[in-house]
Amino acid sequence: MIDDSNFLQQEQTVNLIPHTSQLIPQIAVVGAGTMGNGIAHVFAQARFAVTLIDVNVQQLDKAIQTISKNLDRQVAKGSLTENDKATTLNNIIIETDLSLGVKDAVLVIEAATENTELKLRIFKQLDEAAPKSAILATNTSSISITKIAAATSRPAQVIGMHFMNPVPVMKLVEIINGYATTKEVTDTIVGFTRQLGKVSCVVNDYPGFIANRILMPMINEAIYSLYEGVAGVEAIDNIMKLGMAHPMGPLQLADFIGLDICLSIMNVLYQGFGNQKYAPCPLLVNIVAAGNLGVKSGEGFYAYSAGRKELVVSERFMKFL
Ligand code: CAA
């Protein structure tokens, strides 16, 4: 188990210490996609030594480029200096070998593809390769922490650390206690979250936790409203943006999250609670089956093209306007 007080003491001395220093807590992030690169970014910016791990070296290179671009945004806004940017990038190393990447970690955060079998496999491997004292966290948005923990020999040290996209911007980390997670482990993770300048909310492990148990039915209801012809894409999104002060309407947010992810979370809620109120809207099922997954595929409720900033409703949904 990590001694948090000792760790806090170490953190105050790390500013100019290079990445290789043993004084800096080593954080390993598994998976270099959108969430993984965001998590690596915020830990590195908070002066942790980060190892970003992915089997795909191109994905790792792309992640570093994305982090660099996102740091540029912060420099342009004046919230970071060029020096901070260089230090942040210097705090990240990349690795394709999972066992090597986690061997000195005090905390491993898994942010791989949202697939139960894959996560169970990764956690078995992490359990074998990470130090016995390391905490193993998952950024899963809906897979049971208890189930993931049961794949390891240290379920008391397994926890959910659910970051929100875009990670450098969103203040929340939803911390999810599995059935066996100890209070010491939760407190340590709350401490790490505070050091990132983020706010933690601790919840228990039931389907969708809190964030997605509340967010996804709202998105699903917005899709039902479109499906039933109650209103068009823009009206639905503007009502929630202008009437409820949401930064994005629910359909734009669904595109941003990924429609396949939204569908898979609705299925977790539906199966987990066995309640019809969580049944995914047939339009959501269809749009995913057609391969329209939102921003990442170029089309969802809106159509996206490189360099275009304004929102354009997908042709498919124009008839509702
Ligand atoms: N890295 C760093 N900074 C970024 C960034 C990134 N990837 N993306 C945006 N920013 C910064 C911008 O530089 C800007 O900074 P300032 O406030 O200092 O000017 C700020 O964020 C706002 O960005 P923009 O002006 O470019 O655009 P915007 O005002 O439209 O905001 C947004 C973009 C922050 C994404 C905003 O639309 C928003 O908050 N949307 C909702 C996001 C949300 O709900 N996320 C949760 C999704 S659910 C989830 O992640 C969990 C799950 O399990 C499904």
Report what the structure shows.
- The protein is α/β, with parallel strands linked by helices and 321 residues long.
- It folds into two domains: 27-204, Rossmann fold (3-Layer(aba) Sandwich); 213-320, Orthogonal Bundle (N-(1-d-carboxylethyl)-l-norvaline Dehydrogenase, domain 2), CATH 1.10.1040.
- The protein is built from 13 helices and ten strands.
- The strands form two sheets. It has an eight-stranded mixed sheet, sandwiched between helices. The protein has a two-stranded antiparallel sheet with strand order 9-10.
- Strand 1, helix 2 and strand 2 form a beta-alpha-beta unit.
- Helix 2 (34-45) crosses helix 3 and helix 9 crosses helix 11 (250-257).
- The longest helix is centred in the N-terminal third of the chain and has 21 residues, at 57-77.
- It is globular, with a radius of gyration of 20 Å.
- Bound molecules: acetoacetyl-coenzyme A.
- Residues 70, 73-74, 77, 141, 164-166, 168-170, 211-212, 247-248, 253, 257 line the site of acetoacetyl-coenzyme A.
